[in-house]
Amino acid sequence: MRLAAIDIGTLTCRLLVAEVNLPDEFKEMDADRRILRLGEGVDHHKRLSTDAMDRVVETLKEWKERTAKYNLDGLAIVATSAVRESENRQEFLTRVKQETGWDVEILTGEEEARRTLLGIRFGLPQAMAEFLGLDIGGGSTECILARKGQSARVISVDLGVVRLLERVFYHDPPTALDLQNAENCIDEQLAKVRQAFGGVPNNIPLVGTAGTVTTLAAMAQRLNQYDRTRVHNYELTLSTVKSLEKDLIIKTGSERLGMPGLESGREFVILAGTVILRRMMESFGVSSCLVSDFGLREGILVDKAKKL
After folding, report:
1. Average pLDDT over residues 128-155
2. Does residue 274 register a pLDDT over 90?
3. For the domain that residue 63 is a member of, what is the CATH number?
4. Per-residue confidence (pLDDT) for residue 129, from 0 to 100
5. Sequence-separated contacts (24+) of 143-147 with Cβ below 8 Å
6. Which of 5, 71, 128, 135 has the fewest Cβ atoms within 10 Å of its own Cβ atom?
């Protein structure tokens, strides 16, 4: 089946067109991602700004023309944290419908985690049946505990790179107090994860997906251009994460521009994401994170394929 998925995220919007043949065949045909910051200010104001909606709607109109040539068997468009938390989300959904003809599904945090799990599993070796999945987004973070022979446990917490940046990082570069406040916010959400999972097994592999983790993998390898084949299944160690964090902390956002592996638009949020990942790795007692370039986009396609 030839399918397309669009993920309207808090920070980034992503497009993926692929041929999917369940259970394990996947051929990417087209892909794009844009850092559009739909969720800027939502944590404080609970509303999507007109400018942010304009950026997303214009991109969706462009992607509608782009996908028209593929003679698709199915299309799924979803929105996550920023849209589900905004008081004016219906205004956004109506604009998308009027200007593109598309309907957007707003995912709950738990459904977002479920489809992310579908995507992660699709990109992992079949032998890897047990793992702790981590999807650090712009407005929320989804944690997934996959155990062999058991239903996966999932939880979505109010912790994301845009949210954390707007809540605690008041200085550029950050102060020691900014960093301490960030850790306090992260630890508060981690307590919810441990409670939901009833603890996390020792030595269970950690698999991370989405922009923070893949960007750190690219930065660790000093890639001048993003290379999915080098990022997917890269082992990101805790010591490497700490080293990158140390380098990011002493720079302003503008000074981070040009760092190998860091795309423009992430220069401010990458530090917040790095602190989240580092603190979670420390809390779960893991020394490395397997990077997955497969995540929510791929999970949306797999879910769509199963329903057709």
Report:
1. 88
2. yes
3. 3.30.420.40
4. 81
5. 143/113, 143/193, 143/196, 143/197, 144/113, 144/116, 144/117, 144/120, 145/197, 145/200, 145/204, 146/117, 146/121, 147/201
6. 71
